[in-house]
From TrEMBL:
Sequence intervals crossing the membrane: 39-58, 70-90, 102-121, 128-146, 152-169
Originating species: Cohnella silvisoli
Keyword tags: Membrane, Transmembrane, Transmembrane helix
Name of this protein: Uncharacterized protein
Length: 184
């Protein structure tokens, strides 16, 4: 199995994770925040997106360097922590139950935000993915603070992963060639 096939498999996982993340939005709207339906979609999305981000990274790894790699690691670690937090929410553990839940949520949010910003800056510089995927990726944290559209912020985030994953899976680029095109 060569690296290109691994990258395509991980990109497909990113697409599935994005679809699962999109599924959170109608669940939150219909059944309310932290409903079991939304949390189930969130759990699946966190696992798939935490793995799939590496397929997105491998597509442009030769162009985004060490900062991009560190940003991807921060996003993956944040997805892992979020998976644990979602699982604990499914079990009924809240911020009032344990003293460590709220600081962990804050640290996780900061880790994710820094990872997202670093990844987006490096992705814009690399000019491999289209700008709309990066804009949607950065729109998620902004939309999370707007009460009228908070439930739909996850759909935007998921759509960005679907876009990133599609471009990686199809080995498409905007301006620069991918590593796999250059090696051929």
């Amino acid at each position: 199995m060569n690296m290109e096939r691994i990258m395509k498999g991980l990109a497909l996982i990113a697409i599935l994770g994005g679809i699962a993340r999109i599924g959170m939005a109608p669940c939150a709207t219909i059944w309310g925040e932290d409903s079991i339906q939304e949390l189930l979609f969130a759990l699946v999305a966190c696992i798939l997106m935490g793995i799939g981000i590496f397929g997105i990274y491998f597509h442009e790894a030769h162009r985004i360097g060490t900062i991009g790699f560190i940003s991807v690691l921060m996003i993956a670690i944040s997805s892992t922590i979020t998976t644990c937090l979602v699982w604990s929410a499914m079990l009924g553990v809240g911020t009032e139950d344990n003293d460590y839940v709220m600081p962990l949520k804050n640290i996780n949010s900061l880790l994710a935000l820094l990872g997202m910003i670093g990844f987006c800056v490096q992705t814009i510089r690399a000019r491999i993915y289209p700008i709309w995927t990066v804009v949607l990726f950065l729109l998620f944290p902004v939309m999370s603070f707007i009460p009228a559209v908070t439930d739909w912020a996850t759909a935007v985030w998921g759509l960005s992963y679907v876009g990133f994953g599609y471009y990686a899976y199809k080995n498409k680029t905007i301006l620069n060639r991918t590593y796999f095109d250059a090696a051929a």
